[in-house]
Amino acid sequence: MVILKSEELKIRPELSLEERQSRRSSLHANELTNIQKLDANERYIYFIKKICDTEEVWALFDDEGLQSFLYDEKWCIPFWTHEDIAREVLGIESFTKNLQNPKFLPIPIDNWIDEILWADMQPENIHLFVQPVPKNDAKIISVDEFLKDFTKIYSCLFGEFDDSDDGDVDGAVKKWYRQNVVKPLSGNPKRKLP
After folding, report:
1. pLDDT attached to residue 79
2. Rounded distance, CA 129 to CA 182, Å?
3. Residue 86: pLDDT above 50?
């Protein structure tokens, strides 16, 4: 499978910054609880699907910039789908003990893929720490593996998807596809894979 950058996937946020801001709302308490109860793999699939929909990713910054952490002997950067989910980690000392003025900021999906994943994280072998929440593990995954899964799910949502059992698709992605995608969504044709 070829891993593509956002331009090759034709990913450009359809919504302006103002439109994305107006669509943001607080999560209901039960929605936040349900997300926290998901295991790491379920939260991972939810993360990919949700960022395709919202066209942005939330990350932790402080006065020095985007924050990375040494976790399980790997350098990782945590990312979330929503500010409310991200704020839950403020109570976790390992995330906040050395931060000066921690804040969560949204990143447009195309900038995130090209400037953070490809340009910064992939060359340095920094992993994604996907949707960490208190009292539950989070998936740690390399940029290359994440982009393979992201490309598959993005293809499910906005293009054609080969559901053959070729061993190329992670089982969780296939299971998610069968349970959640009856037919590809009708989205902007710019989002279709070439």
Report:
1. 94
2. 29
3. yes
CA dihedral 122, 127, 133, 137 (to 10 degrees): 150
Q: Which residues pair with 56 in a beta bridge?
A: 108
List beta partners, residue 71. Answer: 74
Q: Which helix or strand (DSSP H or E) is residue 108 part of?
A: strand 103-108
Mutual angle of helices 40-54 and 171-180, in 10-degree steps: 60
102 burial class (0-12, 13-18, 19+ CB within 10 angstroms)? middle
Q: How far apart are CA 109 and CA 111, in angstroms?
A: 6
Residue 52 DSSP SS3: helix
Domain layout of the chain by residue ranges: 35-191
Enter the DSSP assignment of 101: S
CA 12/CA 152 separation, integer angstroms: 17
pLDDT of residue 190: 34
Q: What phi and psi, each to the nearest 5 degrees, are found at residue 47?
A: -55, -50
User: Model pTM?
Assistant: 0.72
As a whole number of angstroms, the distance between CA 12 and CA 80 comes to 19
The CATH architecture to which 35-191 belongs is 3-Layer(aba) Sandwich (3.40)
Alpha-carbon span 27 to 25, nearest angstrom: 6
pLDDT in tens, 6-59: 555 555 556 666 766 666 667 778 888 888 889 999 999 999 988 988 889 999
